[in-house]
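Q:
My hope is that you can spare some time for a protein that puzzles me. I hope you can help me see how the letters and the tokens relate. Thank you; the sequence and its tokens follow:
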Amino acid sequence: MSASDAPTFLLTNDDGIESPGFRALYDALSTVGEVVAVAPADDQSAVGRKLSRRVAVREHEMGYAIEGTPADCAVAGLESLCPDADMVVAGCNKGANIGAYVLGRSGTVSAAVEAAFFGVPAMAVSLYVPGGSGDEWRRKASDVEDYEEAAAVTRYLVEAAPDAGVFDEADYLNVNAPWTPEGRATGMEVTRPSTLYDMTAERDGDHVDLVDRTWDRMQSGDIPDPVGTDRRAVVEGRISVSPLTAPHTTRHHGALDGIADRYDPASVPRVTDN
């Protein structure tokens, strides 16, 4: 590929522009194209597609730091700061973004979804770090080198996927790599999001503790997810790639047609009728 043909990547994330996973992707993508960082100035994890009306922006050695969310970064980047981007890459997130229920929560995935509405191919990249919480988990994957596997697969996909026509069918890819300090992932698998949901909530006086039990189950290997799901692939040491679409798909329901046909505005009681 000649320099004139090199793609331009808009790189964002939700862990913040100074995170090691972000630097790992910046360095990897810089070997195959121009990278413009448009990323949150600080941690914006799990904010979903929260959007601001106005955000502060400052120049950064890698591009721009935004006082806002990942969705803010995607919009600001594609509309103003990096309008010629060929692809949006979000990550690398510390912690997996797997399972259907996580997709709407994740700031990393939400940046890719936002890009899809602009018609720009996108990829969300995350690293599964076993443990899930606590000081011990926070100490893991704290160096750029820990994201080498995720960065390598990201480079591979940004080079291979567009020419193969992947984005003719998928709006974005949700990529999750296992953290394997002792070795490499055992391969790559095209997956679908798992439907396992294991949230619990327990009241403790004036508080309610919300706990996602899937992380503990993943660490112990106690997961019912079938072969072909993102969680199963990552737990077993494979890189998971889920081709996804935005907006969410809809399914036609004959029963709902009947309800709509029977609706009579004149016969439905109003509060003022009481």
The longest helix spans residues 148-164. The mean pLDDT is 92.
